[in-house]
Model the fold of this input.
Amino acid sequence: MKILLRRLGALSMLAVASLGTPLAQAQDKVLNLYSARHYQTDEALYANFTQATGVRINRIEADDAGILARLKAEGSGSPADVILLVDAARLWRGEQDGLFQPVKSAVLEQRIPAQFRGGVTPQGAQWFGMSTRARVIVYDKARFKPEQLDSYEKLSTPAVKGAFCVRSGSHPYNLSLFGSMLEHLGPQATEAWLQGLVANMARPPKGGDTDQIRGVASGECGVALSNSYYVARLMRSGKPEDKAAMERVGVVFPNQASWGTHVNIAGAAVARHAKNREAAVQFLEYLSSDTAQRYFADGNNEYPVVASAATENPALVSLGRFKAETVPIGKVGANTAAVQQMLDRVGFK
Ligand code: FE
Done:
């Protein structure tokens, strides 16, 4: 236990449920989950699975990079069964590093569109998107009109000079958006576009997506990028300051007239050295069930990957329907190394 704790400390991880018990107990029906999901509302998602199957979940939380590093360090001794990551590029990286194993499941193939399955082999896919999130443009309604910002390309136009706010360019959410732009625009235009974003910044990149929305609400920023669920979370907040903030902030789903808004995924994979493979596959199938899909939408304001899943989220309803891009999400992941080099060249921190 001490060794485990020390290792957890070294990788700055947080063992949520299970520090009191060893991770992998052979006879127990148990599932060891390494999760980069950082959403409080997920508790019900896991509890529901345990209730339905009797399989207990040990969960360790870290960010995507921490989880991948830990899996690599642990090698074949890793107790991990299921990996949950919140970005396509990271899932792609895990696949490239041989950290997952293919899963062949009629349920998953039927429920999850091919676009959101990655590392597809004859033995099955290496990972599966379970929910999607749109990367939207938020703006100060007092300073901009939505027509000025109805595409990602327009973020680099002179109209946005001194107004653009964004989290670090190297954050997976941005790397994946930029990887998608590379797919659509090609290398030259993408690098020129990134240079334009740098030229338009109101401040050096900092904070998370919510900080960018708050920056727009405070007037420090005129325009920003955010994942849709952060917007929806503030829309649903009961706090007066959040309500006031969202009065001032407009939301655009970019590129409706062209290829569609960039959507990223949160997804799941079975670990290469999973000791509880059967329960792991069962858990993935559960995540694609109507019940779980509903948790993603109603609990965490994400969009279900299963088109037929019913949801009841007033914020998502009010944001409205939109056209999403259809580029295979695995390609986006594969582009992120080239994108990082562009960011270095144009000085996008
Ligand atoms: Fe997030």
About this structure: The longest helix spans residues 329-346.
